[in-house]
C-alpha cells in the first residue's frame, strides 16, 4: 500500500471508529508507527508520516514529538518535503517553542531561493508563527522582497511585513518607503496587502500617519477606479468590484481623515459617489456601504454627507437580514447624540424593530428608542415603550423600566403624567425595577401636594387589584400612611370618588402584612403605614394597637424591632405619638436626574433641629460582602471577615425617644472629594464618623460622557489591623450625561485607632473597552470629620 493511500486509509479507519475509546486506540497505534518511521531516517517516509501526524494533531491529540521532524524536512532540498515541513512548523511550532529558533536560518536561505514557491513557503511560515527575534533577524530580507518584480512574492512579503510590524512596531520605519510605492501596483492582491500594511503603520506611529496623508489623492483614485470599473470576472462579487479591497481602502481613509480637514475634504466627493452608486441589495454592497457610513461619521465630513450616511443606515433597518439591522442600530446609537435630528426621521422604523423576534435586535432597538426620546415626542414614544414593556423578554424589563424612568424624569410634560407613567411601570413590571425607584417616586409624590388626593386614591385601587408587585405595594402603603385622611374623605376632583371606610383601609394593609408574597421590606412599609393611620383615624385605634402588638414577637428581627418601638409609642409616649407620626416634610432631591440615591438622602435637607416623624417603612438591606483584598497593599497576613458592628444599647431610665426610634440625629458630613476622574467617570469620596472606631466611607460615581459606563465595580483594601466591610453597590451601570449615580458604602472598623490607609481599585467598561485603575488614599487624619484625606492615583 502506497504511503499516500496509507494516509487516506488511516483517515478512513479513524472516521469509522464507533466509540471514543476505539478512536484513541487507533491513534495510539498510529502514533507508535509514526515514531518508528521517524527513527528510520528515510525522508520520503518521514514526510508522509508527518502528514499523518498533522491530521492526528487536527483531531486534538498530542503531536509534539514531530517538531524536530519539521525542522529536518524544512532543510531538505526537495519541494514536497519542504512543503510538509513548513506546514508542520506552522501547526506544531510557535514563538514559545525553542525549536522555532532552529528554522530561522532555513527560512533566510529559502527567502533567497530561485523558486517563487519555495520563497512563498518561507514567507507564509514567517508571517504565521515568526517570533519577535525572528522578525528582527529577517526584516531586511522582507523589505528586499517588497521591491521584487514578482507580484506573487510581493503579496506574500506584504502580509509578512504586517506580521513583523505587529510583533516589533519599531521596525515600521523600515517598511514605510516600500509601502508607499506599492500603491502604484495594478495587482489587486498586492494592493490589498499594501493598504493593510499602511493601515498598520498609521495606527502605530503618528508621524507615519501625517506622512501617508499625502497619499489620500492616490487612494481616492484607486477607490474611484474600483467603483466605476467595468465588469471583471476575476474580482467581481455580487456586482461589486473587489469589495474586500474597497472595504480596506475605506478603513484606511477613515484613519487618514480623522480630525484632519484637508484629508477629509479630499475624500468627500468620493464618499458621496460610493454612497450613491453602490447597490445594497447584496451583502457585498451592504458591507461597502457600511464602511462608507463609518468613514463619513469619523472624518470631518459635510453635514449633507452625514445626513446621507444616516439615511443609508435607515435603509439598513428595512433589510430582511437581522445582522444588518443590528449593525445599523449599533451605528445609529453611536451618532444619535451628534446627529439627533437626522436619526429622528427614522424613529418609526426603529420603534418597529422593538417587535422583532430576535432579542439582540430588540435590545439595540430599545437603547436607540430611549436615546430618541425628547420633550417633543415624549408622549408618543412613551406609549410605544409601555406597550413594549408589557410584552418584552424578562431580561429586558429592568433596562426598559429604568430607561422609562430616566426619560420621564427629564421630559415629563406634567407632574400627574410623570406619576401615572411610573405607576404604570410599577403595575406592569414592579418586580424588575431598581431599588431606588420607591424612594424616587415617594419624593415625587411629596413634592406634588396638589396631587396627593389623586395619587393616594389611585394607589389604593392598584393595591386592591394586585399585591404581587412589591415596589408598587410599598409606595401604596407609604401614601396610605401619609395621606390616609384624604383617602377616607373620598373627595377627589381628578378621579371618580369611591367611598372608603377605615376598616377597608386597615383590611388592605393587613392583607399585605399577612400575604406570603410580601417581602420583609414591604411588611415594614405596611406596618409603619398602619401605625401612621393611628393619628389619622378615630374609631379603629384599638385595632391598630392589636395589629402592631402581634408583630412584637415576629420572627423577622427588623419588623419585630419596629413593632416594639411602636408599642412603646402607644404606652410610654402616647402624648408624643401625634407629633412623631405627623406627615413627612417635602423631600428635595440633591440634584436633578439623580436616580441612585436612597430615601435617607432625600430627607437630609429637612429640618434637623427637631425630631423627625418616623420613616415610612425600611428598605431591604443590601447583601453585604466582606472584601479580603489586602494583597493590594502588600500585607502578608489575611484577616478574617469583619464582624458586624453593633450599636451600643442605652440603659437610661428616661428612655430617650430619639434613642428608642434608632437615633434620628444626623451626623455631620464632610464635603465630597474627587478621588478619580477619567473617561468621563468621576468618583467622589465622603467620610462619616459613626463612633470612636467606626467610620463609614461612601464612594459616589457619576458619568459625564456620552455613553453609559457598564460593569462598574469597586474593590478596596486596608491595613490588616483595620476591619473592612463593603456593602453591595447600588448598580453596576452609570448612565451617561450625568443622568444617574452609583453609590457604594465601605464600613471601616479601626479598634487600634491606627492611621488609616485605603487603596481603591476601579474597574469598568467604557465604549467597549475594559478600564482598570487604582487610587491610593494615603492617609486618613485622626479626626475624619474635620480633615480631608489625601489621595494619589496609581
TrEMBL record:
InterPro entries on file: Adaptor_Complx_Large_Subunit (IPR050840), AP1_complex_gsu (IPR017107), ARM-like (IPR011989), ARM-type_fold (IPR016024), Clathrin/coatomer_adapt-like_N (IPR002553), Clathrin_a/b/g-adaptin_app_Ig (IPR008152), Clathrin_app_Ig-like_sf (IPR013041), GAE_dom (IPR008153)
Compositionally skewed regions (Basic and acidic residues) per UniProt: 601-613
Region described as Disordered: spans on this chain: 587-620, 633-654
Biased composition (Low complexity): 643-654
Membrane topology listed for this record: Peripheral membrane protein
GO cellular component: AP-1 adaptor complex
Domain of life assignment: Eukaryota
PROSITE patterns according to UniProt: GAE
Entry keywords, A to Z: Cytoplasmic vesicle, Golgi apparatus, Membrane, Protein transport, Transport
UniProt keyword rRNA-binding present: no
Primary location: membrane
Ranges of residues in domain GAE: 668-781
Membrane among keywords: yes
Family: Belongs to the adaptor complexes large subunit family.
Entry protein name: AP-1 complex subunit gamma
